[in-house]
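User: Here's a protein and a ligand (zinc ion). What would the complex look like?
Assistant: Let me lay out the input and then the predicted complex.
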Amino acid sequence: MNRGGGYTLSRLEEKLSDLKGKFPFLDVGCLGKSFAGREISLVGIGEGKKSVLLVGAHHGMEWITTGLLLRYAEEYCRAVSEKRKISGVDADRIYETRRVFLVPMLNPDGVELQINGADPQNPLVETLSETCGGDFSHWQANGRGVDLNHNYNAGFEEYKSKEPALGIFGGGPTRFSGEFPESEPETAALCAFIRREEPRLLLALHTQGEEIYADYNGYIPPRGGALAARMAALSGYRVARPEEAACYGGLKDWFVSEFRRPGFTLECGKGVNPLPVSQEAAVYASIRGILLSFPTFI
Ligand SMILES: [Zn+2]
């Protein structure tokens, strides 16, 4: 059916092979596999040693972030191939001295459930269906009912102790943190990659709210505050702190506390999730300055 015309994994793969055809220097690989066995795409652009990492679609309803990262990849690659400037810097110079890693869709199983409903490829589909009354339209979690952005090792136990009060007693559409940190194949693969590559900066794209989060429990690594302010100036978004329940176990939380390097959550666009495909161009326009400048921040 494809509810809302969103980005499923097959559309992502099509778009990546199209981009690879246009820009052969784009590296397209695989980060690992999802719970239901789907490949998680990993894209690399550039030849530098210093890297940044941008991650989209932690959450099923937030597939528009995949489209945003693909627009960015295309615009950046085009600027490199046409030897144009980005934010006043030669794009091919950025290409030679930086490496940009993109994980456009960390949670392909969750996106599949949200867009297409009950997923025959998922061995747990009947159990998952019971947790949401057969309606997957608000599905945020992965293919095992774990909310990936609560599954990282930062404040995991604190959040776990709050789950009962939030009405969370196990896997379901949203906010269940899992049995232990990195229990899910998607988060385990991403964390292993981060430990190996040690990116200098991290940006995790979510929707929505036009906000930038830069701290973990009040801690902001060196340069994190200044960069957040710069990102706010480039986008018109505001630097804020997430609501209480969203404060723990996120990718940015783990990255910031583990590596003491700047990491950000970018809440793209404004409206009701899932933001419709019709808003993709406008939301991209709002964060384009942040994305294009991001590799120049290191
Ligand atoms: Zn999200």
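Summary: The CA atoms of residues 160 and 177 lie 7 Å apart.
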